[in-house]
Design goal:
A hairpin with a 5-residue loop joins strand 16 and strand 17. This protein has 9 helices and 17 strands. It folds into 3 domains: about 200 residues, no CATH class; about 90 residues, 2-Layer Sandwich (Alpha-Beta Plaits), CATH 3.30.70; about 55 residues, Ubiquitin-like (UB roll). The radius of gyration is 29 Å and the shape is elongated. The longest helix is centred in the N-terminal third of the chain and has 22 residues. The strands form 7 sheets. A 4-stranded antiparallel β-sheet has the order 12-13-11-14, covered by helices on one side. Strands 15-16-17 form a 3-stranded antiparallel β-sheet. A two-stranded antiparallel sheet has the order 1-2. The chain is of the alpha+beta class. Helices cover about 30% and strands about 35% of the residues.
Length: about 350
């Protein structure tokens, strides 16, 4: 296998183009068992061999499903050139060399048009690529070329931990690779952002504002909590409290950022009967999070997405958005929340709205 690189300019950007040439242009073994036997004979690290096996198993399985055959009966006509093996192993070696332990990908652009195959003319993207991309976020582009091949689809499907917006990271370097096609609507480049992950848990200083109340109406208390939250408090709530002479009361607690202490303390002193507030500086640990919008049949819902130290994802739809849609559709808030979470994860759910009663 011969590897050649050249520095090229695409849309004014300097990028590296990598070309692979097989010293022997003969075809790879097209049968699954023969191909895997060849892969086992190569001198590969165990980790890379296992990933390579998963990638090619996925390709064979997709081709088998498309043609209605068993994987052992499939011939990889279009993928049987040696440079396909070089593509897969080259990507695996590259990521290993860079020390990349986690890979994330953006949604994949799919072109249109027709391609010539051993089975005749087929539409772009190739049917095998479509099968491999089940469950992966994609979008269409006007380019009438193959923008995602079955090999490329299998690589990202096996190697990418997740798809979507870039996760928080401390950016260290950016690599640009150039393709060979000239596209009409976009530069034909692939960008690789390399960096260290930002900690899943961050620490920040916050201030608790506290006061005890025994002569305030529930309506006023609810209004104060609502105003605190709308004007920047991180949290606000009440706890039962026994006051002087055994009188029942409540403790108002508001969690605020240091820069908001004076303003929100003044709000409490203005809106309630208390003559003073106590301040308590403390720290809190929070998960890094981002806010996304999920489109539902009933309207958009904002969703907070956080990742735990173990890598698990937490999804929390915004209450106000759910309440608005629940009131509009008659669907219980809990069921709406479940559907929003399922939609975010790409799972199809059917929930019928409750018809609103007409006032006679």
């Amino acid at each position: 296998m011969i590897l050649r690189t050249e520095r090229v300019t695409v849309s004014g950007l300097s990028a590296l183009r990598v070309r692979l040439f097989a010293e022997d242009s003969g075809a790879l073994p097209p049968r699954f068992s023969e191909f895997m036997a060849l892969l086992d004979r190569l001198e590969l690290k165990a980790e890379l061999r296992e990933k390579a096996r998963k990638i090619f198993e996925l390709i064979f399985s997709a081709e088998a499903w498309v043609h209605g055959k068993d994987p052992s009966e499939v011939n990889l006509h279009e993928l049987s050139a040696y440079d396909t093996l070089g593509d897969v192993l080259g990507v695996l070696y590259g990521l290993h060399h860079l020390g990349i332990s986690e890979l994330y990908a953006s949604p994949l652009p799919l072109g249109s048009g027709l391609l010539e195959t051993a089975h005749g003319r087929l539409p772009h993207p190739a049917p095998a690529a479509v099968e491999i991309l089940r469950g992966v976020p994609v979008y269409g582009v006007p380019e009438e070329v193959e923008t995602v091949t079955p090999t490329g689809a299998a690589l990202v499907r096996v190697l990418a931990r997740d798809f979507g917006p870039m996760p928080p990271l401390r950016l260290e370097t950016v690599g640009l690779g150039a393709g060979t096609f000239t596209l009409k609507t976009r530069p034909n480049i692939l960008r690789l952002f390399v960096g260290a992950p930002e900690p899943a848990i961050s620490s920040e200083e916050v201030v608790e504002i506290l006061c005890d109340l025994d002569d305030e109406s529930p309506e006023v208390l609810a209004r104060v909590a609502e105003r605190l939250l709308s004007e920047g408090a991180l949290d606000a709530g009440f706890l039962p409290r026994t006051m002087k002479r055994g009188r029942p009361g409540v403790r108002l607690e508001a969690l605020v950022r240091p820069e908001d202490v004076e303003r929100l303390s003044a709000l409490i002193l203005e809106e309630t009967s208390t003559l003073g507030v106590r301040l308590r500086r403390t720290e809190r640990r929070v998960l890094s999070r981002r806010v996304e919008t999920v489109e539902t049949p009933y309207g958009p819902v904002r969703v907070k997405v956080a990742r735990t130290p173990s890598g698990a994802e937490k999804i929390k739809p915004e209450y106000r958005d759910l309440a608005r849609l629940s009131e509009k559709t008659g669907i219980p808030l809990r069921r709406l929340s479940e559907e929003v979470k399922a939609t975010f994860k790409g799972v199809k759910m059917e929930i019928s709205p409750v018809k609103e009663q007409q006032n006679e």
